[in-house]
Design goal:
Elements (H helix, E strand, L loop, with lengths): L2 H7 L6 E4 L8 H11 L3 E6 L2 H13 L4 E5 L5 H15 L4 E4 L15 H24 L7 E5 L12 H21 L5 E7 L2 E2 L4 H4 L5 H5 L7 E2 H12 L10 E4 L24
Parallel strand pairs: 1-2, 1-4, 2-3, 4-5, 5-6, 6-9, 7-8
């Protein structure tokens, strides 16, 4: 291993990160937590499914990663408080927050959507991130800290059945950019990564039958995006390599955003599930 490779392998030595939505396998949260841990960070991971979360916690510990798991919904203020407390109590500091929780509470025609479905989707994709960030700032996240939110390439499209999700992620983008301006005075950077269709547990029904071959064939680079691809972008934003970058939304979508309205798997009426 070269000196440069050794340096990069421990970019986060001594740093502490909170990663929400890290229980499922594969998932963006789990891949990000693993990547941080392999590069020297201690991580506080979160998920709602205790069994899956404990499995992820064990997998990280088996790799020698310092990890604490906090079960609960990221939408609940109490969960955010427990995450920040765990970072400080177990590891003595907090440097990074990665908000990966999101989803779609309405999948259908906009003509059939009700208020609760729209507002519930917006809440799911925005409030948990805001709550964790607020608690992190109160709990010691300061100069040199960095935040990454997971957005979506859906904001580039006008897919009717994804109207609530696209609106929610557009709101998250606005929150990301505004927080980047607001927190710059504190020395905290805020960016977002916007995945296209990604091979995760949440999209399994759409890629598992053919291992993503059909989806890959519809993308400009001809390869289905994996959770690790999104994690690599998150780690870049958290690293000192991105110390002059804030308020950016980075598309990681095999070039799909370059293709006008772009490809989406959500046009097929038989598809059920969430896009992430």
């Amino acid at each position: 291993m070269s000196n440069q490779q050794q340096s990069r392998a421990k970019r986060f030595e001594g740093r502490v990160a909170i990663v929400t939505g890290a229980s499922a396998d594969p998932s963006i949260g789990r891949s990000t937590a693993v990547g941080l841990g392999r590069e020297g960070a201690s991580v506080v991971i979160n998920g709602r499914n205790e069994s899956s979360l404990r499995q992820t916690e064990k997998a990280l510990r088996d790799e020698g990663i310092s990890v604490v798991a906090i079960v609960g919904s990221a939408e609940e203020r109490e969960t955010a408080q427990r995450l920040v407390a765990a970072a400080n109590d177990e590891f003595g500091r907090l440097d990074f927050v990665v908000n990966t929780v999101g989803g779609n509470r309405f999948l259908g025609s906009p003509r059939e959507m009700n208020k609760e479905e729209l507002l519930g989707t917006i809440e799911l994709n925005t409030w948990g991130a805001v709550a964790v960030i607020q608690e992190a700032l109160s709990g010691g996240l300061s100069k040199g800290g960095a935040i990454v939110n997971i957005s979506s390439g859906t904001v580039h499209k006008t897919t009717p059945k994804m109207i609530a999700y696209a609106a929610a992620k557009a709101a998250l983008n606005a929150i990301t950019k505004t927080l980047a301006r607001d927190l710059a005075a504190l020395g905290v950077r805020v960016n977002a990564v916007a995945p296209g269709f990604t091979q995760t547990d949440g999209t399994r029904a759409m890629w598992e039958p053919d291992d993503g071959a059909a989806a890959a064939g519809s993308l400009l680079l001809g390869r289905l995006t994996q959770a690790d691809d999104i994690a690599h972008a998150c780690l870049f934003f958290l690293s000192d390599e991105a110390r002059q970058i804030t308020g950016q939304i980075l598309d990681v979508d095999a070039g799909n955003h370059l293709m006008g309205g772009g490809w989406t798997p959500m046009t097929d009426e038989t598809i059920q599930g969430r896009l992430r």
